[in-house]
Amino acid sequence: MVAQEKDRTVVADEALGYPIIVAPGVVGCMNEFLLSRSYRDVVVLCDANPAVRTIAQRLVRRLRPQARLLAFALGERRKRLSTLEVVLDGLTTVGAERTTLLIGVGGGVASDLFGFAAATYMRGTAYAHVATSLVAMVDAAIGGKTGVDLAGGKNLAGAFRDPVAVFCDLDALQTLPYRHLREGLAEIVKAAIIEGGDLFEGLETLAAHPFYRWPWESIVVDAIRIKAAIVRDDRLEAGDRELLNLGHTFAHAFERAGGYRMSHGAAVAVGLRAAGMLALRLGRFSEEEHLRVLALLALLRLPMHAALDVDATLAAMGADKKVRKGRLRFVLPRAIGDVEHGIVARRATVRNVLERVRLRPGAAG
Ligand SMILES: NC(=O)c1ccc[n+]([C@@H]2O[C@H](COP(=O)([O-])OP(=O)(O)OC[C@H]3O[C@@H](n4cnc5c(N)ncnc54)[C@H](O)[C@@H]3O)[C@@H](O)[C@H]2O)c1
Ligand SMILES: [Zn+2]
């Protein structure tokens, strides 16, 4: 599933039917890809964040064929249908056609939103994504889940639509704010709990070292490989793909109940702790393993608490896509390297967990 080429690593090409290319700087890889596919018209869509826009402008200057650039103010709170409409209108304004290749540049919000725009524009145009945040590289840009939030909940409108390629630009991590880099690690910890073994132990070792000494390429590739293997066997999330939602029933509710002020990575970190606590309370997870996960989260200096309203969070959980007949269902660890999905828990037990992860004013984080 992983092929090492001269200046890049290519993951999952056969497994998913499209390449995920991990490299420092992706213009060269992108041009080679475009040449191999003979797209004649390209529109680049980017997050208007100055650092991301700079990456997109550099790409557009050097792309063959020539591309037009559209930039949009994004952010978690703009992952909405109203922004989708602005993007689709932008595409009509520049005269994008059904055969135009759309290239999105940005983090997970950009890949979810631009990917959804590509899925719907003229009933579907080809889409490639240049991932510039850690969350987008190891998770959001891979697997074809696109979408936006609705007032009723996170990611409630969307489409499964595979990209034609994903480019993970490791150089982009240099401008990603330190907080987003650190909090983005939560998705890698999630993958490590699902897989166990080397990735989990590797993170335990690396946690003591500063980020500049981390082997980012191999970590990103490992996390992608784990996600791609799960997605390959269950593309539409009818079964085991749900495992990738470990910690997310909590995380999505924290985000929504908190008005999307918390980063997704931070919400996932607290969600992983909450999932471990719930599994422990249900007698499905050992205290020793739970403490090992907590120790890793702490070593990586990931958040363990969220400033949350317990009632609002419980209500937000009711809108989770995994809810069946009103019952809350969770993805929970049984051991590091052994995760199960479809576990029903009583609201009172969930409430108790929420009370424990709630940041109390004045309490130490
Ligand atoms: N579809 C999926 O399978 C999937 C999986 C995981 C997460 N997600 C979604 O991804 C979203 C979170 O992604 P995110 O954390 O990347 O958020 P994001 O896209 O908002 O990026 C975080 C912040 O970093 C900025 N940024 C991005 N790249 C940068 C760079 N290289 N330099 C400087 N700043 C940069 C962005 O402008 C933003 O301010 C959530 O909405 C989540 O639901 C989707
Ligand atoms: Zn996530």
In terms of topology, how is this protein built?
Blueprint: E1 2-5, E2 8-11, H1 13-16, E3 20-23, H2 27-37, E4 42-47, H3 50-62, E5 67-72, H4 81-93, E6 101-106, H5 108-120, E7 127-131, H6 134-140, E8 145-150, E9 153-160, E10 165-169, H7 178-195, H8 197-206, H9 216-233, H10 248-257, H11 264-281, H12 287-299, H13 310-317, E11 329-335, E12 338-344, H14 347-357
Parallel strand pairs: 3-10, 4-5, 4-6, 6-7, 7-10
Antiparallel strand pairs: 1-2, 2-3, 8-9, 11-12
Helix pairs in contact: 4-5, 5-6, 6-7, 6-9, 7-8, 7-9, 7-11, 10-11, 10-13, 11-12, 11-14, 13-14
Nicotinamide-adenine-dinucleotide is lined by residues 47, 49, 51-52, 75-76, 79, 106-110, 112, 132-133, 135-136, 139-140, 143, 145, 155, 172, 175-177, 180, 184, 263-265.
Helix fraction by DSSP (H/I, runs of at least 4): 40-55%
Distance between the termini: 40 Å
Number of helices, counting only DSSP H or I runs of 4 residues or more = 14
Largest beta-sheet characterization: 8 strands, mixed
- CATH names the topology of the largest domain as Rossmann fold
Low-confidence stretches: none
CATH class of the largest domain: Alpha Beta
Classify the beta-strand content into a percent band.
15-25%
Key attributes of the depicted protein:
binds zinc ion, alpha/beta, 365 residues, globular, two-stranded antiparallel sheet, 2 domains, Rossmann fold, binds nicotinamide-adenine-dinucleotide, Dehydroquinate synthase-like, alpha domain
